[in-house]
Amino acid sequence: MKRIAIIIALLVLSYTAAFSQKDAGPAPTAAQVAADNAAADQIAKAALAAHGGDKLKQMKSLVMKGSADINVSNQVQPGGFSTAISGSRYYFEISTQLQSFKQVFDGQNTTSSLPGILLPPVTSVGFPVLAHVGEAGYVVTKYGGAKKRPGFRLTTPDGFYTDFWVDEKSGEVKGYESAYLAYGRNISTSAEIESTQNVEGVILPKKYSQRFDLGAFTAYASFNMKDIRVNAPVDETVFTLK
């Protein structure tokens, strides 16, 4: 049961990525770093525009609900996923027949339904960070993923970073990846966006899959958002544990 709880806690990072990756090879020159970062900045700005630009930046709230099928050792557990973001506050929840997990931030304190398990804030990692491209304190640098593809790394003021890769023609984000330390394990993960949905002029992930390499085993999750709301009223009670 504890293993299932940890897996579920990790899988709610479908919108997250808090990393400690290692770079290989000789150190590039300062000129090359500047050129690479400038190119990455252009890709990041194009990605922001492709997902709604100012409408994404000015989004006041986001609510997403859907299904989340978790596959570990070829055993599939169907479940549900929901999240809401309003300003800096957020909650996310994932549940299966065996276990559920919820984490909330009420603007001051972060709490979760599993004692001792707190995940990186969804407002500081993963897809939601895209809205902060161009803002002070959010640094765009060269894509840090293992594969060579067009993309960029976006680092937040609190040190979290996400590697995004994009479609060369549309500029839309096609996925993101990370490696991080959680519960004493080195975890690597990658997410691929299969389809998006235009909601009030904001282009958001609708269907996506994610792979988690947990060292001793690998877990997979398939997410399908069935209800996406932008700038809709959010029930204040969701930002507290019930």
Structure description:
This protein is mainly beta and 242 residues long. The protein has one domain: outer membrane lipoprotein receptor (LolB), chain A. 14% of the residues lie in helices and 43% in strands. It is built from 3 helices and 13 strands. The protein has helices at 2-11, 30-50, 54-57; strands at residues 61-72, 75-77, 79-86, 89-96, 100-105, 110-112, 139-142, 151-155, 161-166, 173-182, 185-199, 202-213, 218-230. Strands 1, 2, 3, 4, 5, 6, 7, 8, 9, 10, 11, 12 and 13 form a 13-stranded antiparallel β-sheet that branches. Strand 4 (89-96) and strand 5 form a beta hairpin. The longest helix has 21 residues, at 30-50. The protein is globular, with a radius of gyration of 17 Å. The model is unreliable at 13-23 (pLDDT under 50).
Return the string of H and E elements: HHHEEEEEEEEEEEEE
Count the helices. How many? 3
> Structural class of the helix and strand makeup?
mainly beta
Our Rg estimate from Cα atoms comes to 17 Å
What fraction, in percent, of the residue positions are helical? 10-25%
How much strand? 35-45%
Low-confidence blocks of residues: 13-23
Q: Could you say how many structural domains there are in total?
A: 1
| CATH class group | Mainly Beta
Oligomer: single chain
Mean pLDDT figure: 84
Q: What fold name goes in the CATH topology slot?
A: outer membrane lipoprotein receptor (LolB), chain A
In CATH terms, what is the architecture? Clam
Tertiary shape: globular
Main β-sheet: number of strands, strand sense, barrel status? 13 strands, antiparallel
